């Protein structure tokens, strides 16, 4: 995830996310890039990966020593890692969002579709509506923002970047401080968060968290509508209308791919297990177990002394670049979509959608100030220099 700080740098934090798909639980690395540099992230120039506390001290002198490690991480490891883009950002950059609600509905149907065949049918529908909008949408590789092409190694089906948005919102005050103070604030916040999470999972009544339980309960209710045909071993067919899927309990596979992607049993798997008298909790992926959740928060962040006790490295102090005042008001919050509802106060209601009614003539579409039928004498306004006279 990336955040911008006060002194015109971009900081890329390496963070871990817990199994509840909530805010990142810990940050281990900070990567810096000068905003004035024209070099891309892949190059060794102006790119330094450092431990958080030592970030500001060694940002200048570790560039050559870490270049080899970055080349291996970026060109070798990063190229083999599955990449996923935030669907909300994809929709915000897509020209189809200007065409109406029907295109927005089609977009989210495409993103959430689990199978390639269903994805192709939904894409054909959009292509028939508007060929230009479809071509604009397919400029970015669908493998990065649609579930139909995702792998099954990472047991996560989230399609947006909300965990990182929550993290950015939590550190919004620290982002405008100098680098060392900013990292110290983030470190103390993460230290407190680990303790809060430990208290949270101690209240769990099951082997998994409440969010996983809510998804599993919804699939249990849906499994009643599916008709099951068993092959006598571990294979089953599930039918409902024209839809039909297969389940293999020995390999924990369902042809809808929801079970493999999220690690949570789908409705078809629940129906098969109820038919065979199996326990659903035994087939839940271990990444959702409380044991795994405890491992994510098993390593506390150790306390450190203040700057007055930090050892002197003998390295020349790296001063921040000269601060330039950028035009306009600095943005803190994300850009709100055009059709996104505005946030109101708790005791206020929105007037959007209400029909205006005139209290004089009783007709709709105007109020008494612009009514021409109810008033005997229409107000005539004359402008004379800076004064307004009403007859």
Question: How do the strands and helices of this protein lay out in sequence?
Answer:
Blueprint: E1 2-4, E2 9-16, E3 26-34, E4 48-51, H1 55-58, H2 63-77, H3 87-93, H4 101-112, H5 116-129, H6 131-137, H7 162-170, H8 179-201, H9 210-222, E5 227-230, E6 235-240, E7 243-248, E8 253-254, H10 258-262, H11 267-276, H12 290-296, E9 381-384, E10 387-390
Antiparallel strand pairs: 1-2, 2-3, 3-4, 5-6, 6-7, 7-8, 9-10
Protein name: SWIM-type domain-containing protein
InterPro entries: Znf_PMZ, Znf_SWIM
Region (Disordered): 324-344
Mean pLDDT: 76
Q: How is the biggest beta sheet arranged? A: 4 strands, antiparallel
Radius of gyration from CA coordinates? 28 Å
Strand content: 5-15%
Q: Any low-confidence stretches, pLDDT <50, length ≥5?
A: 1-14, 26-64, 377-391
Number of domain modules: 4
Q: Using DSSP, what is the number of strands?
A: 10
Query: What is the general shape?
Result: extended
Helix content: 25-40%
What kind of assembly state do the chains in view correspond to?
single chain
Quickly give the structural class. alpha+beta
Figure out the total of helices. 12
Report how far the terminal alpha carbons are from each other.
Answer: 63 Å
What's the order of the H and E elements? Answer: EEEEHHHHHHHHHEEEEHHHEE
List the strand order in the largest sheet. 1-2-3-4
Pfam families: SWIM
Organism: Gossypium hirsutum (Upland cotton)
Protein name: SWIM-type domain-containing protein
InterPro entries: Znf_PMZ, Znf_SWIM
